[in-house]
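Chain A, query sequence.
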Amino acid sequence: MEQQSISIAKGGLVCSLPARTSVIAAANPAGGHYNKAKTVSENLKINSALLSRFDLIFILLDRPDAEMDRFLSEHVMALHSGSKITPGSATTSNSQYSRQAAGDSESEANTSSFKEQLLVQPGESIDPIPAGLLRKYVAYARKYVHPRLSPEATQKLKEFYLELRRSHRAIDSTPITTRQLEALVRLAEARARAELRVLVTEDDANNVIEIMRYSLFQTYEDEDGVMDFDRSQMGTGVSNTSELKRFVAKLHRISEETYNNMFTFSMMHTIANEMGLRFTNFNDV
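Chain A, predicted structure.
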């Protein structure tokens, strides 16, 4: 996918054909429940090599949210009742949430995050683009708009890539390669192409970096809501928190069986190796 081409070697025919397309895939976790103690690859039962081809990975969890629950309930009821579905039907229209003036909105857009800019504010009206017009817009942008990186955007993306490389040096952490850098470039170009601009600005790079951070942070969050950067995103290892709980439970069982609650460092190393765990410093356990 990231190469945008496919190589064929069959029946004496060896060639490379263009395959410039975007792939959006959705998958349900094995067992019907997403376990935050496991990696994305373990939850989805997808080969790590295939999973690493996707530029962005988002985890959608069903968490209680009053505003979103109200929106979904009104959407479902509108479908079954045959009434017209309005995008702003689930939003409140109190005076304190009234839409601000255009000047205030533009000034806040420069300081607010990209996520806040995309969120629909309570009471805000939406004028959706017709599907036919949207298809023509996308086709025109892909055919005639070919953005290039500005020096400012290039510097931003390079600094973020080097930051990822420095923070993911652990053996079990997710490897950061040039594939992530190429993904950043593609996303930044797509961000500019969406607005029919031929130059990728620094703001485009910042928006893409925020999206990439959000995707990475979701995959690193463990079952306790803590960012565990030492486990692999694509690998088969569980989080450090889960490994610690398993190790302590094992020590507790051995203590009950042997009536001994004293363990030396060598004994703990032996037990950890038998369980397939890797603890470099037991003083931190």
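Residues 87-109, 234-238 have pLDDT under 50 and may be disordered. The longest helix spans residues 202-220.
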